[in-house]
Amino acid sequence: MAGSGDWMLAVVAFAAAAAVLLSEAEGLGVNWGTMASHPLPPRAVVRMLQDNGINKVKLFDADAGTMEALAGSGVEVMVAIPNNLLDLLTDYDAARDWVHENVSRYSFDGGVNIKYVAVGNEPFLSSLNGTFLNVTFPALQNIQRALYDAGHGDTIKATVPLNADVYNSPENMQVPSAGRFRPDIADLMTEIVQFLNQSGAPFTVNIYPFLSLYGNDNFPLDYAFFDGTTSPVVDTNGIQYTNVFDANFDTLVSALVAAGVGGLPIVVGEVGWPTDGDKNARVDLAQRFYAGLLRKLASNAGTPLRPNQYVEVYLFSLVDEDAKSVAPGNFERHWGILRYDGQPKYAMDLTGQGRNTALVAARGVAYLPRVWCVLNPRATPDAMSRIGDNVNYACTYADCTSLGYGSTCNGMDAAGNASYAFNAYFQVQNQVEESCGFQGLAVQTQQDPSTNACNFTIQIEPSAAAGRRPAVVAVTVATAVLVSVLAVMVTAP
After folding, report:
1. Among residues of the chain, what percentage have pLDDT more than 70?
2. Which stretch is the leader sequence (predicted)?
């Protein structure tokens, strides 16, 4: 048996190792989105963050319920201003009022630990056609000024989360060292980054290796991950890039150098991998991506142009959101590292040590009764003639993205597709009896219709979802295409 001195040394060593692992987890942030028909109660989410040692969170608004739940938790918060408020905040008085209501109100000893204010969310996306080009910078300036005037400016900084499409490398070069801001916004971006540099705020960028694969079958799969590639990108300076994350990050570094602020800190506001809604949105690929990313972050390896540096990262996202727009793709509702109900999807070690461990699930989640809504096997031929319209209706107001091509429920037959659609609607409507009618096509059952690949959801109790009414799922072009395809599938002979 070891002596007491050896025992004490072992205890000290274990404590030191545990402290290192915990500090690595605490360096990570997560995005907490709430666009769900049945969102988890805010206090349950905050407790789940604490249970997992996650000490940073990025929000998409300044919802009072969310902020009140975060009060006293110690969790570091990036509170956000939605794009639709940017025009209003070009007026300084409005910016001052926003800071008073959403920052000063919570920023006190024992309150919310606010570190950043996100002014907008990807406001310069090319797809937005310049809607926010003239209002984002004035709003940023006014918010930072208001933070100073309220006495918060030294500790709370205003930043603008931007998509990686604000910079690129010329087509004739396509290497990180040639990175520049997009020509149509280059002057504006230079003004913004110089302002961020002066105020002491970071540049916040969203990087998505998954999107490099999405819609591009020629993109090399292994380049999206962190475990090596047979075809690295060799820069003109001789640096080899073995993954698209490093290449993307360093393209931004080069753009910042060209704009005269090469040392500006960079925060990765969003990075992640979805698990459904596309052929590459899979659990195994998400697990592979996060294992590599977390291992990289834990090593403090940085990137070739910023080596041996800690990179501040917010994973996207914490939980699935069934009411998000699917305009970018059906995968948009499946970014969570946890399911809609706060249950882990796969093994994940936030410390980056590669341990076979899972995240701690949300506690105290209450569900609706174990009742599903499925296609009635005794439906009349007359009722069956209306199945297409009824599936279309169900998928317009509930989430059917798991039925799409390459998704987890894509392999079912027509009856399975109809049952999935009917159940999705039934659950969103809190299992109200009338929501499982569909003109005689549907019937309730206590027998779980789920398959090994396809889960038929039982939703969270409304009272456990902060008492909110079910959200109407946004109808977009992608949704319309999906429901029309399903309607054809279920009516085909």
Report:
1. 88
2. 1-25
Nearest to 246 by CA among 221, 267, 264, 224: 224
Is the preceding peptide bond at 199 cis, omega within 30 degrees of 0? no
Residue 469: burial class (beta carbons within 10 Å; 0-12, 13-18, 19+): exposed
Specify the pLDDT at position 164.
Answer: 97
Residue 238 in 3-state DSSP?
coil
DSSP 8-state class, residue 344: B
Phi/psi of residue 183, nearest 5 degrees: -55, -35
Q: What is the pLDDT of residue 35?
A: 97
| Alpha-carbon gap, residue 487 to 418, rounded angstroms | 9
Does the pLDDT value for residue 428 go beyond 50?
yes
Query: Is 312 tagged catalytic?
Result: no
Q: Is 198 left (phi over 0), alpha (psi -120 to 50) or beta?
A: alpha
Q: Which two tokens stand for residue 9?
A: 């040394």
Strand extents, DSSP E, 129-260: 157-159, 161-163, 167-168, 180-181, 203-206, 233-234, 240-241
Of 319, 302, 169, whose CA–CA distance to 248 is shortest? 169
Convert the pLDDT of each residue in 214-263 to its tens digit: 978 899 999 999 998 888 999 999 999 999 999 999 999 999 999 999 99
* 270 carries an active-site annotation: yes
Sign of CA dihedral 288, 411, 415, 400: positive
Pair of tokens at residue 323: 């009411």
Catalytic residue among 24, 68, 191, 270: 270
Catalytic residue among 24, 76, 122, 321: 122
C-alpha span between 269 and 79 (Å, rounded): 12
Q: Maximum distance among all alpha carbons in the chain?
A: 83
| Banded pLDDT at 489 (limits 50, 70, 90) | low
Coil, strand or helix at 492: coil
Query: Helices 387-397 and 414-428 meet at what angle, rounded to 10?
Result: 40
DSSP state of 116: E
Q: What's the token pair of residue 108? A: 């006190």
CA of residue 381 relative to chain centroid, distance? 44
